[in-house]
Design goal:
- Helices cover about 20% and strands about 25% of the residues.
- It has helices at about 5-15, 120-125, 140-145, 150-155, 165-175, 190-210, and strands at about 20-25, 35, 50-55, 55-60, 65-70, 75-80, 90-95, 100-105, 115, 250-255, 255-260.
- The strands form three sheets. Strands 2-9-5-4-3 form a five-stranded mixed beta sheet, with helices on one face. Strands 1-7-8-6 form a four-stranded antiparallel beta sheet, covered by helices on one side. It has a two-stranded antiparallel sheet with strand order 10-11.
- Strand 3 (about 50-55) and strand 4 form a beta hairpin.
- The structure holds a DNA duplex (16 and 16 nucleotides).
Amino acid sequence: MPELPEIETIKRGIVNNVGSKIKSIEVNRLDIIKRQEFELDLLYNETITGVGRRGKYLLLTLGEYFLIFHLGMSGRFYILDADSEDNTPHIHVIIYLDNGNKLIYQDTRRFGGVFLVRDLVKFFAKMGVEPLTDDFTADYLYNITRGRKIPIKSLLLDQRIIAGIGNIYADESLFLAKIRPDKKAGLLTLTEAAALSVAVKEVLTRSIEERGTTFRDFRDGYNKTGNYQKMLKVYGRTNESCLDCGTSLTRRVIGGRASHFCPDCQK
DNA sequence: CTGGATTCCTGCTTGC
DNA sequence: TGCAAGCAGGAATCCA
């Protein structure tokens, strides 16, 4: 499940293609384009002026145009030599560059999509704060949780509030902050909100350092796995021992999502 | 407005 | 052994 650290890892892996021009774009499935504010042909011969990330979205900037990718839960985005053969199933978009590379967008389950955007501000208008910026503070988290009855985990996953956290990092952050995922958001104290905001930053930062988590599907820009799965303390460790206290870890569906936590450490 | 359920999709895992 | 059912989940959408 590509979340913020995985998209950031991909972004860093493809940044060396900035400055090259798009020769052509091959779209194998039209319905993978979820939004189209301009014709794809307009990008031919345009230069990639930047690569970026907002939440879980990967951005290619081409002057005034933006080519945006969301990887859903099984999507991949990687670089190959333009003339190399790639028979991977479910390749939906191939971007041929004038530097001899091609960029591949592949997504088995097609929960992701491609967005051809001109009005970037409007496109991201409803997106929440970036958790690794100074906008994401204890006060912000505390204030936004007031009066909310949903589980704190559901709130962490709400992209309109915080951008980029998915199921894995929500569970890991809550464990680090010693807060149960099913605790009502409105019941968090300021101290807990502070611990959680710090924990989110810590977990995401460490994962980026480890080039993301490969639970099953994730690959970086060079189709290599990440390493953070080795550091996971609760996610996917149902019935294994808590690394802090030894108690058997619990798995429970919260807000429709499989959730993992320590029933002793997390209050 | 809030919160919960539903839907999309494919492939791996589970159980009979 | 083989096959069908179960499960996974980001985010839009719908409904109460």
